[in-house]
Amino acid sequence: MISIRDEEFHQLARYVKSYCGLDLSGKKHLVEGRLQNVLTSLNMNSFSEYYHYVIKDRSGEALVDLLNKLTTNHTFFMRESEHFHFFRETVLPYLSVAAKNKDLRIWSAGCSSGEEPYTLAMILQDFFGEKKWLWDTRVLATDISRKVLKIAAEGIYSSDQVAVLPELWRRKYLQPVGNGRYQIVEKLRKEVIFREFNLNTPVFPFKKKFHVIFCRNVMIYFDSETKRELVDKFYQSLEPGGYLFIGHAESINRDQTKFKYVKPAIYRKE
Question: What pTM does this model have?
Fold first, then answer.
């Protein structure tokens, strides 16, 4: 096993934080363990050698692989289901009246393998029903990991993964593709736009503001200052009256934000 020296760990941690905000403080053993196979596959003998390999790789693939190893892209359909219920019963009735030109802008930030944005697309389809064609409700889904974005865009999941979905949804929005796997139907896949995006970008480039932002279980990787800056950027990126959903394991310091607390893990811009 290749050990990571303190100076090597701090060097790598500083680089990762400067790029995407990921806070590795106190995670020396995690970094050492998760990168062992990477160093072995590259025939490297030290973490310093690996660090220089990453920063010199102009393609960016080495950095993407590093981030994939250090983050846990764990999600599932209907995760924290009370959020989806609130979105369906409270947020959409409000936005169906408040949104101008029938243009509804929803962002799933840190979408991982796609379960969250596809769930939102299913809810939108059901809510608007026959009038859905009058609305632009495509969901923007972003993540820093190309690996999970590829999985998300394909929209193929195991029978165990989709078992939590309502039976009606499974019939309407899934099609069997063999070996106990199911794919999101093409019509619904077109309702989600997957893009690679770094939330640590100083200024978000979006031309229009969103009505709803889901960013759940992402900020647990950030330190307090990085999280505060991200929440501020979310606030600036929302329309007045817009909603921010975060993970139940996360919280926002109400003394440091303009967001109004609505209920656990749900905030609103007034």
Answer: 0.81
